[in-house]
Design goal:
7 helices, 201 residues
């Protein structure tokens, strides 16, 4: 499904629409909505920074495994500007976490789930994994003193060092908490996201 918002082309994949429908049918639509809202807030942080810096993307593709912002100006911007754009994503989630948590403390219990979801999305995205903001931040910083291939190799190694322990903890959590597979699902999502990017190359 494709449509335009001003000069930006927005594409939503069929797989994401199917996943949303499954969540609604299975009765976990509230969890889906909280996660979707946190992800939208995250990407809005990136887009806000890009808009402030004067370069809005021409195309945004939303699929089941990622939100791909076609940022054609990235290589023309300074490392400082790119760091700001990357940082604004998790920052938007942390700001929303603080706001929602304060509202929760003020007696609005409905905001607790929104606060925790934004905190989770923000913390997840600062992990030094290549497909996440944390990995991109580390990559840009390493490129200041190393060539791009060396920087990418270091981030790939960090990705493995992060995902293997996370997956192990996910398996332990799966069997010790009445089949809570959330962490294992996140690890699977990250692995699939990395594979998809490798295939696209």
């Amino acid at each position: 499904m494709k449509f335009k918002i001003f000069s930006t082309e927005l594409e939503i994949s069929f797989s994401l629409i199917c996943a949303a429908a499954i969540c609604v049918i299975s009765g976990i639509y509230k969890t889906f909505l909280y996660c979707a809202a946190a992800i939208v807030i995250h990407e809005a942080g990136h887009l806000a920074a890009m808009s402030i810096l004067g370069k809005f993307p021409k195309r945004i593709k939303i699929s089941l495994f990622e939100i791909n912002i076609s940022d054609y100006q990235r290589h023309r911007r300074s490392n400082r500007d790119n760091l700001i754009i990357i940082f604004f994503g998790p920052a938007a989630n942390f700001i929303c976490f603080i706001v929602c948590y304060l509202l929760y403390l003020g007696g609005k219990e409905i905001f607790l789930s929104a606060a925790l979801t934004n905190l989770s999305v923000g913390c997840l995205n600062i992990l030094p994994v290549m497909s996440l903001d944390g990995g991109q931040l580390v990559y840009i910083l390493l490129c200041k003193s190393h060539d791009p291939e060396r920087a990418e190799s270091v981030v790939d190694l960090l990705t493995v060092l992060i995902l293997v322990p996370l997956a192990s903890i996910g398996f332990i959590l799966l069997f010790r908490s009445k089949y809570n597979f959330s962490l294992l699902f996140v690890c699977g999502y990250l692995v699939l996201s990395l594979l998809m990017k490798k295939i696209e190359r």
